[in-house]
Design a protein that fits this description.
The protein is α/β, with parallel strands linked by helices and 220 residues long. It has a single domain, classed as Formyl transferase, N-terminal domain (Rossmann fold), CATH 3.40.50. The protein has six helices and ten strands. β2, α2 and β3 form a beta-alpha-beta unit. The two termini are 26 Å apart.
């Protein structure tokens, strides 16, 4: 199936670019229906415009609270015909207003092997803890901070002379690959998201053909 994507960004938009490039190359069956930045002048907006993708700026500063900001996002996304939402370097915590509008269809990319090092500066956290392997995770978004069901992960070694900047750059390269990998799997209907038995519980991810697994680890 063709995915109708809404991509939320706050900065340079390199993961957005990976999506746009994969679509242009015929590697991803998707359309970017709308790119929204909460920051005017975000470099990612220019990337979207150059690819012919519609853009909008909805500043969180123009709204009194997170719920009203998310309501504005939902209105714009729904009007654009979006069915899947991708948080690609979106530096805002989303609320139930957005999650309920797109149940089980909000995806985030995070620069660590979750559940390790959630939140901000995950690469710095990895260095501070002295781990030898870190990476990135694509997961469904829930009400917690980087706690949603994991869809796929990619490992990245931590080198002895790594700085946060060097490690971040290597992880970012894997993020681009992994995000496209997951979106392609969604388009190919390789897994389904099923609601939990209780309304307050997390979503349960069922992978077609691998019903006992909770995610796919990609480490090539």
């Amino acid at each position: 199936m063709t995915l109708d994507l809404g991509v939320l960004i706050s900065g340079r938009g390199s993961n957005l670019q990976a999506i746009l490039d994969a679509i242009a190359a015929g590697k991803l069956d998707a359309r970017v229906r709308l790119v929204i930045s909460n920051r005017p002048g975000a470099p990612g907006l220019r990337r979207a415009e150059e690819a012919g993708a519609p853009t909008a700026v909805i500043s969180h500063k123009d709204h009194p609270d997170r719920a009203s900001f998310d309501a504005a996002l939902v209105t714009a996304l729904q009007q654009a015909g979006v069915t899947w939402v991708v948080l690609a370097g979106f530096m805002r915590i989303v609320t139930s207003v957005l999650l309920d509008a797109f149940p089980g269809r909000v995806i985030n990319i995070h620069p660590s092997l979750l559940p390790a090092f959630p939140g901000v500066s995950a690469q710095g956290q990895a260095l501070a803890h002295g781990v030898r392997i870190t990476g990135c995770t694509v997961h469904l978004v829930d009400a917690g901070t980087d706690t949603g069901p994991i869809l796929a992960q990619a490992a990245v070694p931590v080198l002895p002379d790594d700085t946060e900047e060097r490690l971040s750059a290597r992880i970012l390269a894997r993020e681009h690959e992994l995000l496209v990998h997951v979106l392609s799997a969604i388009a190919a209907e390789k897994f389904a998201v099923r609601p939990s038995a209780t309304p307050s519980g997390p979503s349960r991810v069922e992978l077609v053909g691998v019903p006992s697994a909770l995610g796919v680890v990609v480490d090539d």
